[in-house]
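Before a colleague's protein record goes any further, I have to sign it off. Would you go through it and say whether the fold makes sense for this chain? Take the sequence as given and treat only the tokens as open to question. The record follows directly below this note.
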Amino acid sequence: MSRARIRLVTAVLASALAIGTLPAASAAYAAPAAGATASATGRYPQQAEPIRQIPLQGAVNVRDLGGYRTWTGGQVRQGLVYRSDALSKLTQGDITTVSGLGLTKVVDFRIPMELQYDGADRLPAGLAATSRPVSDLGLYGTLVGAISSGDPATQEQMLGGGRAEAYMRDIYRTFVTSPENRAQFAATLREIADGSQGPLLYHCTSGKDRTGWMSYVLLRALAVPEETAGRDYLASNTFRAAYDAQVRAGLKQSGRMQNPDLLIPLQEVRQDYLDAATAQLAADYGSFYGYLTDGLGLDLRTLTKLQTRLVR
């Protein structure tokens, strides 16, 4: 990022923080797809930008967060921040691929019970995950209990009738309301802003909820338009669809669930889950940037460092 753009972004952020808001997209700048050209009016056509998946055999939702355009005219640098599902099932070939990313930090948002059942990350030699658990409000335990019961009536009572969806909305609200959760997200953002750090990857079990919220917050803090950040969040449904369908088919075939479709609200990301979190932050902090500054405790200097390091 040029010095002039850094000064511009700093001034914009400072003004936004002063009034407690930041536009989702500039009226004069709509995020262009790679290779898009401006029209005679100086505006870019709004197009969906490509999402950069890292293909692996043992994980299905691994992505480079770089490449997105910002409404300030920049572009998020590639090769610095990655989001992922759990890395406990990586093959040796996957580990070689991950080694090529040059990671210096892996942050694991899973709780101890998830580690107990799914196992620790398999990572290149010399790289160990930093455990930074973010609460799932007991969802993983509830899910294990429901499946282990093998009883259709119990499973329906636990997950049916909109209960699974309500559970997910509650989890997303705690991303905002829980001081412990906010501390974990804030620590990760500070590390990403640290220019002395190398490439960083963060993940949870499915790479969609805790990881999805972390990515949404980071992208918006970088002035990526709200629509674009939302598309990145919802893309987990595309990357996870085949794997999640196989899980449901396996549960039905094994007889552990007669109606594995009860799991779909837990396996998917949905706009109303994200809306539950953003509505909560608006209620608690007044604006997205109020959440960043008052909720996560990030000052203007840290937010500017994020811009300087990640946006060119």
About this structure: Residues 51 and 294 are 31 Å apart (CA to CA). Strands lie at 52-53, 63-64, 81-84, 105-108, 129-131, 200-203.
